[in-house]
Amino acid sequence: MPTAAAARSGTALPFRLRPLEGGLGAEIEGIAVSAIDDATFPAVYDAFLAHQLLLFRDQDLPPGDQVAFARRFGQVQVHVMNQYHANAHPELYTLSNVGPDGKPNGKHPDRGTMAWHTDGSWQPRTTKATMLYAEVIPSRGGGTGFADMYSAFEAMPADEQRRLEAMRAVHNLDFSRNRRHGDEPMSDAQRKAAPPVEQPVVRVHPETGRKAVYLGDHAERIVGMGYEEGRSFIDQLNDRIVGLCRIYSHAWRPRDLMVWDNRCLLHKAGSYDLATEPRVIRRCTVLGDAAS
Q: What is the model's pTM?
């Protein structure tokens, strides 16, 4: 499948695009991430915008190379939750249930990842892209689901679209952390560094111009609604949008790299046996613009 960059240049690309099951996302075949140079990256980025989700299989990607690839997409975030900085690269957020003895410890590293959410919606400058690299994968479970918020918005009646376009929600990392992982709350310094922010419930993608529902588990309340009414509204709408949209469920393999667009996708992690199955995933997130 040709990309816009290929069409502009009139040249063949050094990789192939294979749509993923269900039509959401595409696998990039025939190229190593380490071989993506300045001449090739525009076609990769075009595919990222067109398909929202890119899969690269069987990649050798040391931590420093993952950060370097993320920088091609933009400024890389250093996450406020610094307890997840597990190596020499603070840009990487490591999700692992492996203890110091090298064995599964039975603890989920972040239960908030098991609810539908979009990374970085809790900050004024929202995130453009997330990339996950699979180091160790359980034999069963532990996949990741992706939900297309373009199609969720487009499936709604026009009057509901207009109503949601007029709404704003407050997104709050401290709220979602306590709700899902309250046994390990944020520190005072972390809360101070990540105060609640308002976001539109429907955002216009800054590059494609398409509209997407922008909600997920970090959304705490609706501006102008009572707290309990807003909580009920958000929970019901979060359930509704994932029922309306296209979904892709990814079964990880070791050395998979996934890159997706946080501006138009929700995602969540699946469960697995924490006591017997190791799972180690490295996350890197790229900053974008304020939502509009």
A: 0.94
